[in-house]
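Changelog-linked ticket: zinc ion example.
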Amino acid sequence: MLGVMNNAIQIVEVAPRDGLQADPADLSTNQKVELIRRLIAVGHTRIEATSFVNPKAVPKLADAEALMDAVPRPDGVSYSALALNQRGVNRAIEAGVDEVVGVVVASETFSQANQRASIAESIDRWRTISETAQSVGLKTAVTVSAVWGCPYEGRVDANKVLDIVDELAETEPDELALADTIGTAVPNKVAALFEAVAQRAPATILRGHFHNTRNTALANITAALNVGVRTFDSSLGGVGGCPFAPKATGNVATEDVVYLTHEMGFNSGLELQELINASSWLETQLGHPVPSLVAKAGGFPQPR
Ligand code: ZN
C-alpha cells in the first residue's frame, strides 16, 4: 500500500460533491466556490469538486462547468470530478479537472438502479473513461461502491468485489476506493476486504470511503488504518445526508476523522480548529446543523 512516511495520511474532501448532492440545501455556484476556497485555506490539497453526470440526474451539480471555471487554482491543489461515460469525461477534461473518478457498483441491482447499467457495462464504460483521461495525462481513480452492503441485495459477496477489482486493476488507476455507500460495514469486514484487495491490486493505492449511517465510520477507518490504508474520503461537517431525514446517510465528517487520526499520531496536514470554523460557516450556508460531533465538542481540551 502507500509507501510514504508511516504517519502521513491523506484526506480527500468530498463535501462539494458527495456532500452537497445529497443535502437539502441548494447552494449557489458562488457559495460552492467559497466553500472550496475555505477548504483550501484549512489545508486541503485534494478536493472532489463536482460531477460531470447528466444534470437532470443530479440537478444540484448542474453547474459543474461554471464551478470549475470559478475555483481558485493554487499550486498543489488537485480537483477530482466524477464521470460515468464518455461525454462526462470529455466535459471533465474540457473543464480542467486534475483527476477523473469513476464508479462501479458491486451489486447488480444497485448498479442498474444507480447507473442504469450492469456491472459489466459499468466496467466497460470505466475502461473508456480511464483511457480517455490517461491519454491526456490526467490521474484516474475508480470507486467500487456498496462493497459491504447493498440497499437492494443486502450482503455483498467479497469474491464478487475481488472479481471487479481484478478487472479494474487492468486499467491501472492511480487509486482504487472501496466505498461503504450505505454505511453498513463493520471493522473486521473492512480490514479483511482491504487486505484481500491489496493482494489482488498490489500496485494500486487504496482509499476508503465511509458513510456514518450506522455510526461505524470511525471504527471502520481505524480498522483500515490498521491494515495500511492511508487515504480516506470525508466531508466537512459530515454533510451528505439530510440530518432531519429518518434515514440520514451522512459522510463521515472531516473534522471527526482529523481529531481521531491526529490523536492517534497520524498527520493529515489539516488544521482541526480551522476545520471546525469552516464547518460552522458551512452550517450558516446550508441553513441547518451538520452531524459532526467534533464540530460541537471542539478539539482536545487545553489546560486552563
Ligand atoms: Zn458516498
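Closing comment: Example verified and attached. The chain is about 40% helix and 15% strand. The beta strands are 10-13, 46-52, 78-83, 99-105, 139-145, 175-180, 205-210, 231-234.
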